[in-house]
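EI: anyone free to look at a 80-residue chain?
SC: sure, send it
EI:
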Amino acid sequence: MPHRVLPLLFLLGATTGAILAGFAALAFWPLILLAPPSGLPMARAWADHRFGAGLDPAAVALVILGGTLATPAAWILLHQ
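SC: here you go
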């Protein structure tokens, strides 16, 4: 997978984590546990479709890191 794609994977993880954390904050709070890795299925499908490659451990870590950082930010923002 090209190196220019790695920041997009971070943003994908952050976006899906923030969306699921926002939904969890408004509807059903235990969903917050699923928010950090929520971008993995979409990232895997995108990498397979676009590049014909799987996700290496660094790409998985970037997706989860993006989700992990966005989840508490969205949770705090919606509970102020």
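EI: The chain has one domain: 3-78.
SC: 👍
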